[in-house]
Amino acid sequence: MSHLDNDIFLRALLREPVPHTPVWLMRQAGRYLPEYRETRKRAGSFLALCKNPALACEVTLQPLARFDLDAAILFSDILTVPDAMGLGLYFTEGEGPKFERPLAEEWEIRNLAAPDPHVELHYVMDAVAEIRRALNGSVPLIGFSGSPWTLACYMVEGGSSADYRKIKKLAYTRPDLMHRILDVTTQAVTAYLNAQIESGVQAVMVFDSWGGVLSEAAYREFSLVYLQKIAASLVQEKEGRRIPSIVFTKGGGLWLEALAASGFDALGLDWTMDIGRARALVGDRVALQGNLDPAILLATPEIVVAETCRVLNAFGPHPGHVFNLGHGISQHTHPENVAVLIETVHTHN
Amino acid sequence: MSHLDNDIFLRALLREPVPHTPVWLMRQAGRYLPEYRETRKRAGSFLALCKNPALACEVTLQPLARFDLDAAILFSDILTVPDAMGLGLYFTEGEGPKFERPLAEEWEIRNLAAPDPHVELHYVMDAVAEIRRALNGSVPLIGFSGSPWTLACYMVEGGSSADYRKIKKLAYTRPDLMHRILDVTTQAVTAYLNAQIESGVQAVMVFDSWGGVLSEAAYREFSLVYLQKIAASLVQEKEGRRIPSIVFTKGGGLWLEALAASGFDALGLDWTMDIGRARALVGDRVALQGNLDPAILLATPEIVVAETCRVLNAFGPHPGHVFNLGHGISQHTHPENVAVLIETVHTHN
Q1: Nearest CA in chain A to B256
Q2: pTM (two decimals)
């Protein structure tokens, strides 16, 4: 088994006993850190930063230099896979990610093919290998991907959307084409995550950021089925160690029991659901990751302590909790509040 | 008791037996109708349309001339109350509602006062009276307001928001000021709804559009408590008839049982929750209104029929269902699909 100084994150995901609750934060390498903003400026753009393994490694490690975090997460974007499919990812200031060539015509959907992660996405694999070397066995490295449904949302809408009407119209009127996109994307995501595991990530997370915009029936048909396929096809072990998997459907609190049976080791929770109630619902089937409202980090240190304890107490003294926010950290967060949060989690009884 | 040709909407809200499921659609008087776009053009702006009782009456009646709807809803905006408080409501194309003078300073919050609905909002009461005359007892008229939390979101953020960080920061760091805003707004909403009832509306609905952005604990503290206060203070009867009340927390599926005990007669459901599961959860305590995904209306008539039947079948043969969408109708909807939906609801066994 490869050496790890701190493996409590991996153990908590597998519901094994740990000395204290592990913690990491979604988007922990990000704009709230001045050193991140400096590196990003040097890179020229967000996408250039993602595509440069040395700089991606640099920003991945920045929050670990400041805070006593129990895991690192690969610095990348959820949309690298459709970019590698040829859709042309770009970013506009304040408007989020967009695609130059969103899927509009039937022939474009028929021509869609899963990229070879070692070719079109080799920059990600290079970053993973470089980060693993730099971490030098201190904490585990998390790899990730967007979920098929979430990637498809961006691929069809061409960017984020207020109502997702293009993709919903496609899903309801041409389910054959919708499933074709989801099939190809599922193959691509599975190969991508397994390549990340081969390259050195020690846990994987699937971000189903837009699963929550669907009805329950549509969620089961267009998102959950594909999440199950991915879970069933992930590499289970590497370097003598289990590779735990996490799935996070934002707004998926209503479908938690179905998610708990989807084959992942842990469920990410957004901040809307009481984590104690979530634990009671999923029982001992999966670990839970979450779920402080990131807006709490905009308040005072005293409130950060109180609300962090509220989440820890709601989960209670059971195995299988990884502390996190319920969504990515806000760029408006003061780094001092992050230090307070982590100290609170680690010293909580 | 005042005369009504068709009272099945009111009876379904009170869980009384009805010959078929009643149906109306959120935002049924709106941009998907060419005649609405024509009247709005004539009015000059959306706000001018809201503030002109004759034109508000005209657009309220437009969908009833086309479709066999079981209720009319007052044409207005949820933000008339904070506008009447002096915040200066305005609309910019494509960006939604905004306030010229959002609440930023403590003195502004301390100075906040509930408007007299018969003075600052007399144009709404005039519209209600005019619509009642024009309806002439055909179907009931629904009045409405935004919820205190939802109004406060706009009042503090100054418009819609991606992360609600201004109001959440206020709620977490200065709960005293947050509760001051919510107290005044609750008084204002209660007086506003009761004035609408006095002026002739026959049911009322509270739109808690942004309750779903909160954690469960914050939802209970900053939204639910105030909804309960409103429910407890609404006029119960007018013209010899019960005035049923509906509350709709978008994204509130996780808190449905608490909402069922909040004092309203019916709960509006967004499209994310299976309505059969919702009915099983709330039992016979309240009626349910909903919950087709509005995106279904962008598909073919065959799919509109199938998905409408799916919602009706999921609810099952129980009393207390008002069919509706899970959110306002999309401006991109073909009116023919609305006709198909209503025919399907009315002829369903």
Answers
A1: A254
A2: 0.96
